Amino acid sequence: MKAIVSNTDRLQGEIHALSSKNYTTRYLLVSALADGVSTIHYPAHSEDSDAMRRCLIDLGAELHEDAEKMTIRGFGRHPKAIKELNVGNAGAVLRFLMGTAALLPEVTFVNTYPDSLGKRPHQDLIDALEQMGVSVEHQNGRLPIIIRGSKAHGGLIEVSGQVSSQFLSSLLFLTPLLPEDSEIRVLHDLKSKVVIGQTLEVLEEAGIIIHASEDLMHYHVPGGQQYQAKSYTVQGDYPGSAAILAAAAVTNSDVRVTHLMEKSKQGERACVDVLQAMGVDLTHQDGIVHVRGGKGLVAGEFDGDEFTDAVLAMVAAAVFAKGTSRFYNVENLRYKECDRITDYLNELRKAGAHVEERQSEIIVHGRPEGVEGGVEINAHYDHRVIMALTVVGLRSAQGLTIKDAHHVAKSYPQYFDHLKALGAKIELIEE
Ligand SMILES: O=C(O)C1=C[C@@H](OP(=O)(O)O)[C@@H](O)[C@H](O)C1
Ligand SMILES: C=C(OP(=O)(O)O)C(=O)O
């Protein structure tokens, strides 16, 4: 699908935020790891959450769904011994399930997105699993990956957090089910640290006890635990909503996004503070973010690691801010669906933005007058590139054509419909 995004002066209306992808994948997993029937209210529906759902069914979970909720009968510590799992292009799903696969004799994770997930590194998790007696066959730390887990045990586990927090999350989901206690030590740095808060929150809701150090670098996990079957409610999704809020910030707008909890543990909640720091007229009350855009943005400096999945949308807003913005501590954006620094900035440059890259920084020389556009954008298989370039397209004199825009469905299938409902001039063409 191609998205033709035209210059749009005004956005107006109200959007009910989509359900959180990260909470949905976690609630699905802890429900499957429980014995008994759990309920998830308002689960997300996207390619990534569907990938988790599909894989858990393959592993023996029983799922039923109506319009508002899903019930899941879990497989506890005994997933079905299947041969193959296909996680699509979902990084978190792959990494979390590589841990679960350690409960099985042999599973192959196939490589269906060789140019996206197929390029992403998993070596740090592989190293950790090997310390636990799991045998892993892989292609230089990449897919396809075969996990042989029959001998998995707890104990001392060291894992690097330098590339992704998902490796640590994976171990936190697995280790409570092992007979032995585990000590997990995070080596180097822990990137996207805020996301670990979501993992710990969900584990606690599922009745699992984890003793975490205050800096989230050390964990004592008692073994022999059981996940409890529970009832969960998924909150609204900040990373996806950040793109809607950025679109509202760069246009003349009066837009409300509802269902966004002020006290959320999603790091991307910070997009509200970032936009405010850029001078956007915005309020956040009773779960509603209300933007009155069009008054002109100002540049700022931001630690992007605090809102990993909203960085691209915030950079798109900064493209139209007065002055030079800097998003630092973002190197791990290079290991996502594409290289979200080099690939993304190349597309922004094509659109007419003035941007520079460092190894772990994005620098934006803002153009409050707007950009020229009139070019075709390569989506690089990346939903967040698509969402962010759409924001830029709304302020491009000649608009932007985004190729392969269907990849937006990885996290936010309704993105274009939501923007169109607000008045964005977007035409979708099936190819
Ligand atoms: O744990 C999770 O659900 C996620 C963790 C983050 O990844 P990294 O820890 O690799 O930055 C985030 O970017 C991803 O979208 C989802
Ligand atoms: C990077 C993302 O997801 P994942 O790592 O799960 O593929 C994302 O949603 O932006």
Automatic annotation (TrEMBL):
Pfam families from the UniProt entry: EPSP_synthase
Gene Ontology molecular function terms on file: 3-phosphoshikimate 1-carboxyvinyltransferase activity
Keyword Amino-acid biosynthesis on entry: yes
Positions that bind phosphoenolpyruvate: K21, G91, R120, Q166, R340, R384, K410
InterPro entries recorded: Enolpyruvate_Tfrase_dom, Enolpyruvate_Tfrase_sf, EPSP_synthase, EPSP_synthase_CS, RNA3'P_cycl/enolpyr_Trfase_a/b
Domain of life: Bacteria
Pathway(s) where this gene product acts: Metabolic intermediate biosynthesis; chorismate biosynthesis; chorismate from D-erythrose 4-phosphate and phosphoenolpyruvate: step 6/7
Gene Ontology terms describing biological process: amino acid biosynthetic process; aromatic amino acid family biosynthetic process; chorismate biosynthetic process
Catalytic activity: 3-phosphoshikimate + phosphoenolpyruvate = 5-O-(1-carboxyvinyl)-3-phosphoshikimate + phosphate
Binding positions for 3-phosphoshikimate per the UniProt entry: K21, R26, S164, S165, Q166, S192, D309, N332, K336
Classification via Gene3D superfamilies: Enolpyruvate transferase domain
Limits of the Enolpyruvate transferase domain: 7-419
Assigned keywords, A-Z: Amino-acid biosynthesis, Aromatic amino acid biosynthesis, Cytoplasm, Transferase
Chain segments annotated as transmembrane: none
Subcellular location: Cytoplasm
Catalytic residues identified in the record: D309 (proton acceptor)
EC code: 2.5.1.19
GO cellular component: cytoplasm
Family matches, as NCBIfam families: aroA (TIGR01356)
Quaternary structure note: Monomer.
Sequence similarity: Belongs to the EPSP synthase family.
Function summary: Catalyzes the transfer of the enolpyruvyl moiety of phosphoenolpyruvate (PEP) to the 5-hydroxyl of shikimate-3-phosphate (S3P) to produce enolpyruvyl shikimate-3-phosphate and inorganic phosphate.
UniProt xrefs under HAMAP family: EPSP_synth (MF_00210)
This protein's name: 3-phosphoshikimate 1-carboxyvinyltransferase
